From TrEMBL:
<keyword id="KW-0472">Membrane</keyword>
<protein>
    <recommendedName>
        <fullName>Transmembrane protein 117</fullName>
    </recommendedName>
</protein>
<feature type="transmembrane region" description="Helical">
    <location>
        <begin position="69"/>
        <end position="87"/>
    </location>
</feature>
<feature type="transmembrane region" description="Helical">
    <location>
        <begin position="108"/>
        <end position="126"/>
    </location>
</feature>
<keyword id="KW-0812">Transmembrane</keyword>
<dbReference type="InterPro" id="IPR029370">
    <property type="entry name" value="TMEM117"/>
</dbReference>
<dbReference type="Pfam" id="PF15113">
    <property type="entry name" value="TMEM117"/>
</dbReference>
<dbReference type="GO" id="GO:0070059">
    <property type="term" value="P:intrinsic apoptotic signaling pathway in response to endoplasmic reticulum stress"/>
</dbReference>
<feature type="transmembrane region" description="Helical">
    <location>
        <begin position="12"/>
        <end position="31"/>
    </location>
</feature>
<keyword id="KW-1133">Transmembrane helix</keyword>
Length: 137
């Protein structure tokens, strides 16, 4: 088997050279460092909502704080249980019969994503309760 164009095209050195040439030409064309503009603010809707629900924006009153903590603890618990038994075993294992979800394969991933889902849902429930009470601070 001879070395044709694909061999040299897929070689690691040619890949590195292409990457460095892109950086060099980018610097040459724009006359500035392209890496300095690569850090930007991200708007991650679901994960940001869950992070904000658990870690910050706690109200001043103790009752609202307690309700918020109880809601996110309940969301985590329900997310873990629903991820393991409802999504992993029932939906993926028995109903869809996916081989990758047999026995306990993939259960942690399913539990993690269902926990994120339930945190998102419970954060909206908490925000609705705050809106109904008229207490947004």
């Amino acid at each position: 088997m001879g070395k044709d164009f694909r061999y040299y095209f897929q070689h690691p050195w040619s890949r590195l050279i292409v990457a460095y040439l892109v950086i060099f030409f980018n610097f040459l064309i724009f006359a500035e460092d392209p890496v300095s503009h690569s850090q930007t603010e991200a708007n991650v809707i679901v994960v940001g909502n869950c992070f904000s629900f658990v870690t910050n924006k706690y109200p001043r009153e103790v009752g609202w704080r307690l309700l918020k903590v109880l809601l996110w603890l309940l969301a985590i618990l329900i997310g873990l249980i629903a991820g393991k038994f409802l999504f992993h075993q029932r939906l993926f294992g028995q109903l869809l019969r996916l081989k990758m979800f047999r026995e306990d394969h993939g259960s942690w991933m399913t539990m993690f994503f269902s926990t994120i889902l339930f945190l998102f849902i419970f954060s909206h429930i908490y925000n609705t309760i705050l809106l109904m009470d008229g207490n947004m601070g």
